[in-house]
């Protein structure tokens, strides 16, 4: 439980109410500093878990809870801090958010747990989304958020496919192809060839 990767995920999760409070009070600079620290922890915790061999289902779920809480908190924070820039992007953000929540709902319906696949596509999306969010909250253009929506939809679609393919709950599934291979291996196990029968020689005959 108390590994450094898990502590970083826990820090990100606990920073969400603080981010909301700072944005609601218009504290732009402290909000941006805490957001940068949270996004940095998101990039570091997975690397440390792999480097130090500290993978666990608890760590994967904790990371997913922190990710979900952070990304769900950012739209209201954006509305409080930069409503004029966020308003034109709301239809796009709502469609991306709906796709993300649909993938979460399908996983919850299937496994009764929060999915924590951490696919390669989701990791790339997390990096791009973090950069776009920082640009936006640093008084950059709002359209950088719009560019993320197709990527969010593709990532959500892949996670739905993975949920449908997996025979049981798993964490850290890199791609839908890996889920398909796992399903195929479980449903079609490789059977060992039958043991060779001893040959009958003429001398053995009565």
Description:
- The structure is a single chain.
- With 206 residues, the chain is an all-alpha fold.
- The protein folds into two domains: 1-81, no CATH class; 84-189, no CATH class.
- 71% of the residues lie in helices and 0% in strands.
- The chain has helices at residues 4-24, 28-51, 57-81, 83-86, 90-111, 120-137, 143-146, 149-165, 176-187.
Give a brief rundown of this model.
With 206 residues, the protein is an all-alpha fold. It has nine helices and no strands. It folds into two domains: 1-81, no CATH class; 84-189, no CATH class.
Topology:
Blueprint lengths: L3 H21 L3 H24 L5 H25 L1 H4 L3 H22 L8 H18 L5 H4 L2 H17 L10 H12 L19
Helix pairs in contact: 1-2, 1-3, 2-6, 5-8, 8-9
Membrane topology: Multi-pass membrane protein
InterPro entries: CDP-alcohol_PTase-I, CDP-OH_P_trans, CDP-OH_PTrfase_TM_dom, CDP_ALCOHOL_P_TRANSF_CS
Family: Belongs to the CDP-alcohol phosphatidyltransferase class-I family.
Class based on secondary structure composition and strand pairing: mainly alpha
Q: What portion of residues is helical?
A: over 70%
Q: What is the succession of H and E elements?
A: HHHHHHHHH
Distance between the termini: 71 Å
| Overall tally of domains | 2
Subcellular location: Membrane
Family: Belongs to the CDP-alcohol phosphatidyltransferase class-I family.
GO molecular function: phosphotransferase activity, for other substituted phosphate groups
InterPro entries: CDP-alcohol_PTase-I, CDP-OH_P_trans, CDP-OH_PTrfase_TM_dom, CDP_ALCOHOL_P_TRANSF_CS
